[in-house]
Amino acid sequence: MLFFNNRFSLWIVGVLCTALTGVMLISCQMGSAMSKSKSLSSYDEQVKQLLSQMTLDEKIGQMTQAEQDAIKDLNDIETYFLGSILSGGNSDPKEGNSLAAWTDMYDRLQKHALNTRLGIPILYGVDAVHGHSNVIGAVIFPHNIGLGCTRNPSIVEKAARITAEEVRATGINWTFAPCVTVPQDERWGRTYEGFSEDPNVVKVLGQAAVRGFQGSSLNNPLSILACAKHFVGDGGTTTGTGTNAANISITLDQGDTRVDEATLRRIHLPGYITTVQAGVGSIMPSYNSWNGLKCSANKYLLTQVLNQEIGFQGFLISDYNAIAQITQDYKDAIAISINAGMDMAMEPSKYRDFFTTLKELVNEGKVPMSRIDDAVTRILRVKFAMGLMDKNRSVLADRNLHKKFGSPGHRQAAREAVRQSLVLLKNQNKVLPVSKKTTRIHVAGNSADDIGNQCGGWTIAWQGQSGNVTTGGTTILSAIKNTVSSNTNVTYSVDGTGAEGASMGIVVIGERPYAEFMGDSDKLTIPDQDVETFNNMKKAGIPLVVVLISGRPIMINDILDRSESVIAAWLPGTEGQGVADVLFGDYKPTGKLSFTWPRSVSQIPINIGDKDYDPLFKYGYGLSY
Ligand code: BGC
Ligand code: BGC
């Protein structure tokens, strides 16, 4: 608790609430949840007026989101009155990936929307999940797992604020973030998207992120719409027999969360209560099921719990093609989801199909007009709140913001976040901090000089990618070189050979980038190549510091025993200088584990509060100098 400054009295309220049971937790926080979301319904007069002028086609269009990459003909924006467009994980502008191309693309698409009869602007959504992470040159912050280890809501808010500014520089106005998942099983490939296995951390940091993205008002031109995801229980899935979408023999991603309601409320719901309190304008129902029923089909969860009980007044956006997963028949799936409370459908390439099918359903009386009006009201409230309907204000990109895109100031904030996110796991013989005057340091490892590995998944490409062409930034190797004295000799080999005669070694190893189901793993081992690197370094007989680059705790027992010092650096992003700040003592480590570190995969799932809790490192562990 000490890590949160006392500005956050909500935290205290939250802690007290957690002591109570699920239902009481909701009612305890109801008051402020209602008052915050009021601001969205305060636009209802204007919304009603506009709604009364809209045809069924125009209404359904507002509920339809297409992928820019998959739009068959840009005039479809007019024909189908599209209310929203997204760029998914691999959706660069056709002119290539650059700040100018992204901005041009946004303007081009938005102009089509302005061409429609009512000229309702589109919401353009991207996964700006750790910075404006699709765009080359953006500053990339640590993934949420690292931010969780800072326990610092103000750094999370700042990261989100800067992300919002960089997103706005491209004209884009919506991020599918924050992810307020509470991962309970590190074998899940999305573990790093979560701040913590502990809902108490998630609810505070998730709320801070919403404050950062949406600013003090959605109406501010530097604010973007936030989206809390994935509602609900995405981090609580149970493994079964079979293979996942990537043919990996573990079925955690998009799986089934088999827990009772009290557990769902205690672990997975708190992050939604606090983000609604902060006024989050959109929420994404999850791919996963709860006790066998897909969340996107669950009327109790979407309408009763989220809208009525928690008081959410924004809109729900389905996950990528998630509606089609509800049942074999697409038409039935749409009816089930919309009737359950889904307001907008992410139908990357099936948007035409979705549009005509939903129209049929309405005409056949299978989806009531009142449900359509409710969905469109929720979407339009947000558009009004964002100032998109203000005729005196341009909704095209403000290119003056380009000069701050990826700027040194923004990078400095990310460097600060990196410093605070590092967790010192071992420091024998006080090998750390390293003296800047050390005669010779040998650096090795596949991730020592690799921006792509540092950034992980959801960076430029959906799965991320290894290498320094990914985007600009400071690798850990260059950060080390920047930091040492002019008399220090820094030598480097990827495979750890040639370390003989150095005063000490720094080995940067761990996981390669992945996202979603591609990252599900039942082994969590260090790649063989990296083990070999470590062994080569070991032969030199010098003290070794290991910097782990990983999206989650991985199995390190052997390396831990055979090295003097180990730092968990998670997926720090583009600002590797923050790692050097800690290595050389310019910043004393303060990070604390936001996940339990298991001794073996067979211990998983293992989480704080379990009985028979005997991990390698406990939740909250972290040394300093
Ligand atoms: C992911 C979401 C993401 C969406 C759009 C889905 O596959 O589950 O987290 O926001 O794609 O890229
Ligand atoms: C898209 C991602 C999306 C994923 C879902 C990818 O092709 O680029 O945005 O999350 O598919 O499966």
Query: Helix content range of the residues, please?
Result: 25-40%
The gross shape turns out to be: globular
Q: How far is it from the N-terminal to the C-terminal residue, by CA? A: 21 Å
Radius of gyration: 24 Å
Main beta sheet: strand number and arrangement?
6 strands, mixed
What is the CATH fold-level name of the largest domain?
TIM Barrel
The order of strands across the largest sheet is 12-17-16-15-13-14
CATH hierarchy, class of the largest domain: Alpha Beta
Q: Can you offer a commentary on this structure?
A:
The chain is α/β, with parallel strands linked by helices. The protein folds into 2 domains: 39-393, Glycoside hydrolase, family 3, N-terminal domain (TIM Barrel, Alpha-Beta Barrel); 408-603, Glycoside hydrolase family 3 C-terminal domain (Rossmann fold), CATH 3.40.50.1700. Helix content is 36%, strand content 10%. It is built from 21 helices and 17 strands. The chain has helices at residues 9-19, 22-41, 44-53, 56-62, 76-79, 99-114, 144-150, 153-169, 199-214, 261-268, 270-277, 299-309, 330-340, 351-363, 369-385, 408-421, 451-455, 476-483, 528-539, 557-562, 577-583, and strands at 64-67, 84-87, 123-126, 174-175, 227-231, 256-257, 282-285, 289-290, 293-294, 315-316, 345-346, 423-427, 440-444, 489-493, 504-510, 544-549, 565-568. It has a 6-stranded mixed beta sheet with strand order 12-17-16-15-13-14, sandwiched between helices. Strand 1, helix 5 (76-79) and strand 2 form a beta-alpha-beta unit. Helix 8 runs antiparallel to helix 16 (408-421). The longest helix is centred in the N-terminal third of the chain and has 20 residues, at 22-41. The radius of gyration is 24 Å and the shape is globular. The two termini are 21 Å apart. One beta-D-glucopyranose binds next to loops.
